[in-house]
Write a structure and sequence with these properties.
The complex is a heterodimer of chains A (about 700) and B (about 300). Chain A is α+β, with helices and mostly antiparallel strands. The two termini of chain A are about 20 Å apart. Chain B has about 300 residues and is mainly alpha-helical. The longest helix of chain B is centred in the first third of the chain and has 56 residues, at about 45-100. The chains are: A alpha+beta (about 700), B mainly alpha (about 300).
Chain lengths: ~700, ~300
């Protein structure tokens, strides 16, 4: 009977072995399945009285899984996923820049520069001005499109981060449920190998989202931590939530606690890196390029003189809230919504000591060619930032002569007006001529006392003159030292026998000190009517035919080296070619679109003056990003190279990581993979063992039969 | 290296190899078909930056060369006008010489000479408003309308005192127009000199005619000097164009080196990638067999 029981134990053990082998073969193609092996233990062969014990018992079903190797695979998976995600996002970003050898921002900037070059050679051709505006519009639209694309990628990545969080929370729940199943399986004395396989699959899935540390209890339950925070313990999970901010950044927080989870690898880490750092950095650079273009073209426009079809009013492109109307102008700063306020790089900078000129406003009569120049000066008052210098103050100064530290020199009552006009979302500043003259903010000097409206210092009937050019005699303006012209000897212009003599005094700055330089000119045939007199410092004086009488007082003419010394025009968006606060909203100014000829082509009002258009044609190399003094062309090249490098780095590191992961996976497959050949060999072995055991039983049966027949 | 022999390991390895081989074929195909190896920054970040910079440089060179073409045409036409003016005043000086000569100083011959000068005045009026394609050469920056207007003998200059310039390199510019005031009105008034000569000849004032001879020669010399200056500017532009052409060729060569496909290398790469891809596909078909099952 003992042999029979030994053989029976062998039958049972090998049957179980064949069952396990069959399970292995059945799961040869099941992802995550680990090969199982039946552990056979020989029973101790011993005799107790007439009873003999022995045989074999299937004591366990082992799995070949190696938790240390699994942990390395989880780490590698996190890194791989992180690199894949970064590569995908940066590739999307790179695609926004277009092809290197096709149309891109660089080629569009070159196209705009070329259009301005055409304007420089044909400054009075409206069709060419329209073409330049069209080219600028395309450039602005391309910047808008790229910025929108970056925003769109950020929104998409944020959505993906949200989906990832949902998936992670579900996976954590499944792991917790599995822990409970493993615990119950242990109570029931069953095998938990299949649960362990499912557990490994879930952990690997989790590792794709964020780096994890897994620790196992003796019964196979797993605890999962990330960034030192417990996510799964037994049947309990810590849920993760995606938290956004008004600035568009995203963070992962634990439940309702608000405690941040900072994954360092995995796709969730890459999503956060992209939305919070990489994409904003790209947008910041695009904004810097846009602002540099706005500022550069605006600066050129503001020093140009609009001798063509100038408007009688200028409207600020920037819209101000009612609150901002009462704020100090240089404290109204850029806000994240880009809805109101100045771009940082365009914000004005007021000096806090001494007086300075703020901006120039010219009123120009296109019929007579007469122009008046008004300068807004600023005085801080007795203490640092004593003056309020609000927009309302600026309006008051233009309308009444002074306000909040601003003063209009000379007073322009009846010639200029300023107002804050309600507009969508706030107010716009409007500066207008009240006597139908066109206004501009150029530095061209045109002053011509006419017979019809002589200045008080110029006698009626005196020959008129035109003062033209751009004053270059200094970098500061002192209202107490205006340029003066005085007749010191009466006579007839161009007459060698009785020429008049004039004395011209020009304020000239040297070493920070402004002093007057006085020169006398005899208006004989060498300075006849219509012949320009070179006064130096960028100015020319041309007299009409006629006579000049002695004047007791000199004629005062305002001069100023700068049209917009502290950047008020740029901040207010007045007399700009391009307006906006960055790449998202850069656009050609509405008044330029409606009348392209308003683009200033020259710094003098003379027909065909084209030096400003020539300067605008240098926008690619001369418009510089404020923070780095890098030309916009170079800044764009750097941006393309940097994003390209990020894509390339992520791709090449991803290739290396793929190899690492592939090697680890190979190691794992060697360990746990189902080798069908091996299993078939095992099956044969087990079948033979089973047959042998059955043969033993058969032999015992024959022995018993023989024994029984003897007894009969 | 020992490879896993499980079914899953073999199939996943095969898929990885097929995908990798497929990508290499696509990369090589694109390089050969497009002729460029740098299309986006990630293809070669350094080369991409260089390519953008070189394309920008070529764009600027094209603009300058176009400006040179434009200015060259204007200056050649200006040169012709100045040549004609210079010759006109040489003729006027010859007429003055004839008028001042006692041998020809009878009233009929002087009247005939006066008529010749009148014809020269008409010619000068036309030359002073020389234009090409609606662009007037001697109005300074105001090139869109005739710079000189005439009411009898009264001449009014409506142009400006500055020449219109155009950039021909990053540091150089050249003149496309000249200010007619300094050319024909100041310091020597060319129109006044001719009208004075005409009047002096018609009234037989040979003394004045003699006086005007030097003025006319000075005007002719001045015009010749300006013509020489314009010629020198044109010559200088040719040098600049030569340099720009040279830089353009060098830049295009550098651009090609940085961004264009090396066809020989890419073709070999494509061929090798195709072979690898086909091999990977064939290997994949062998994954499931043979196993021990085939022999039982």
């Amino acid at each position: 009977m003992s042999s029979l029981s030994v053989a029976l134990s062998a039958l049972q053990a090998h049957q179980q072995s064949m069952l396990v082998t069959s399970q292995n073969i059945a799961n040869a193609g099941t992802t995550g399945y680990s090969t199982q092996r039946t552990v056979l233990t020989a029973n101790v062969l011993k005799t107790t009285g007439n009873t003999i014990y022995g045989g074999v018992t299937a004591t366990a079903i082992d799995s070949a899984r190696d938790s240390a190797l699994d942990a390395r695979i989880y780490d590698a998976t996190s890194l791989q996923s992180s690199l894949d995600t970064t590569s995908s996002i940066t590739s999307d970003l790179e695609s926004l820049f277009g092809s290197i050898d096709g149309t891109n921002l660089q080629t569009q900037m070159e196209a705009a520069a070329s259009a301005f070059n055409d304007m420089a050679t044909n400054p009075d051709d409206d069709a060419i001005a329209s073409a330049a505006v069209e080219s600028l519009s395309t450039l602005a639209a391309l910047l808008n499109q790229i910025a929108d694309g970056v925003d769109s990628i950020a929104a998409s990545v944020t959505d993906q981060a949200g989906s990832a969080v949902d998936d992670v929370n579900q996976t954590l729940g499944e792991l917790a449920a599995l822990n409970l199943s493993i615990k119950r399986s242990g109570y029931a004395g069953g095998s938990s190998n299949e649960y362990a396989d499912q557990q490994a699959l879930l952990l690997e899935k989790l590792a794709g989202y964020l780096q994890i540390d897994a620790s196992y209890q003796d019964n196979g339950e797993v605890s999962v931590t990330c960034d030192g925070t417990m996510l799964v313990s037994g049947g309990v999970t810590q849920q993760i939530a995606l938290a956004g901010s008004s600035s568009g950044t995203i963070n992962y927080v634990l439940g309702d606690s608000g405690i941040r989870l900072e994954p360092v690898s995995g796709s969730m880490a890459s999503y956060q890196q992209a939305v919070n750092e990489d994409l904003p950095a790209c947008l910041e650079q695009l904004d810097a390029i846009a602002v540099a273009l706005i500022d550069y073209l605006g600066t050129q426009q503001s020093i140009g003189a609009d001798g063509g079809s100038g408007s009688t009013e200028m409207v600020s492109a920037t819209t101000f809230s009612s609150t901002q109307l009462g704020q100090n102008i240089d404290t109204i700063s850029y806000d994240a919504t880009h809805a109101l306020g100045f771009a940082d790089a365009l914000a004005p900078e007021f000096p806090d000591s001494g007086s300075c000129s703020v901006m120039r406003i010219n009123a120009f009569d296109q019929v007579s060619g007469l122009a008046s120049s008004y300068i807004v000066t600023y005085d801080t008052g007795s203490g640092p930032i004593a003056a309020s210098r609000t927009l309302q103050d600026l309006v008051d100064a233009i309308n009444t002569g002074s306000g909040g530290g601003f003063t209009l020199v000379p007073a322009a009552a009846g010639s200029l007006s300023a107002s804050l006009v309600p507009s969508s979302g706030g107010y716009k500043l409007v500066i207008a001529s009240t006597d139908s003259r066109s206004i501009d903010c150029g530095s061209a000097i045109d002053a011509r006392p006419s017979d019809a409206a002589p200045a008080t210092q110029w006698a009626a009937g005196d020959a008129g003159f035109v003062l033209s050019g751009s004053y270059t005699g200094g970098a500061s303006y002192d209202p107490s030292l205006p340029m003066t012209i005085q007749v010191t000897d009466a006579g007839t212009v161009g007459d060698d026998t009785d020429p008049p003599v004039i004395q011209v005094s020009i304020p000239v700055e040297k070493g920070g000190v402004v002093s007057m330089v006085t020169t006398s000119y005899t208006l004989d045939s060498s300075h006849a009517a219509g012949v320009p007199i070179d006064l130096g410092y960028g100015m020319e004086l041309t007299f009409d035919a006629g006579s000049l009488a002695l004047s007791s007082d000199p004629l005062e003419i305002a001069t100023d080296a700068s049209d917009d010394r502290i950047g008020v025009l740029g901040a207010l968006g007045i007399d700009r070619v391009l307006v906006g606060t960055g790449a998202r909203d850069i656009q050609v100014a509405a008044e330029i679109i409606s009348d392209p000829s308003r683009i200033a082509t020259g710094s003098a009002r003379a027909e065909g003056s084209s030096d400003i258009a020539s300067a605008m044609a240098d926008l690619v190399t001369e418009a510089q990003v404020a923070t780095s003094s890098t030309p916009v062309g170079t800044a764009y090249q750097q941006l393309v190279s940097r994003v390209g490098q990020a894509v390339s780095d992520a791709a090449s590191m991803g290739e290396v990581q793929t190899l690492v992961l592939s090697t680890l996976e190979n190691q794992r497959q060697i360990l746990i993979g189902v080798d069908v050949d091996e299993q078939m060999a095992l099956l044969i072995e087990q079948q033979q063992a089973y047959s042998a055991a059955a043969r033993v039983i058969s032999m015992v049966r024959e022995n018993l039969t023989t024994l029984i027949s003897i007894l009969d | 290296m020992i490879y896993a022999t499980s079914l899953l390991a073999r199939s996943s390895t095969a898929v990885i190899h097929i995908k990798d081989a497929q990508q290499r074929v696509l990369d090589a195909q694109y390089d050969v078909a497009s002729g460029t190896s740098v299309t986006v920054g990630s293809d070669d970040p350094v080369a991409a930056g260089q390519a953008l910079r070189m394309r920008a440089s070529l764009s600027r060179i094209d603009t300058w060369i176009a400006n040179i073409d434009l200015a060259e045409g204007r200056q050649n036409a200006m040169d012709d006008s100045l040549q004609a003016m210079s010759e006109l005043f040489s003729s006027a000086a010859t007429i003055a010489n004839q008028g001042a000569s006692s041998a020809t100083s009878n009233s009929d011959s002087l009247a005939a000479l006066s008529s010749e000068v009148e014809a020269l005045i008409t010619q000068l009026k036309s030359l002073s408003n020389s234009e090409a394609g609606g662009s007037y050469f001697f109005g300074g920056t105001a090139s869109g309308s005739p710079p000189f207007t005439f009411a009898g003998d009264v001449v009014t200059y409506q142009g400006t005192t500055d020449a219109q310039e155009v950039a021909i390199s990053s540091t150089q510019s050249t003149e496309m127009t000249l200010p007619g005031h300094s050319l024909l009105l100041s310091p020597l008034n060319a129109f006044e000199a001719l009208t004075s000569l005409r009047d002096a000849l018609s009234t037989g004032d040979t003394a004045t005619v003699s006086t005007l001879m030097d003025t006319l020669r000075d005007i002719s010399t001045n015009l010749y000097k300006v013509q020489t200056k314009v010629g020198a500017s044109t010559k200088s532009m040719e040098s600049v164009r030569s340099v720009l052409d040279s830089i353009s060729i060098t830049t295009q060569t550098d651009l090609s080196t940085a961004a264009d496909t090396d066809m020989a290398e890419a073709s070999v790469r494509l061929s090798a990638a195709n072979v690898a891809y086909e091999a990977a596909l064939q290997v994949a078909t062998k994954i499931a067999s043979p196993t021990l099952l085939d022999f039982l």
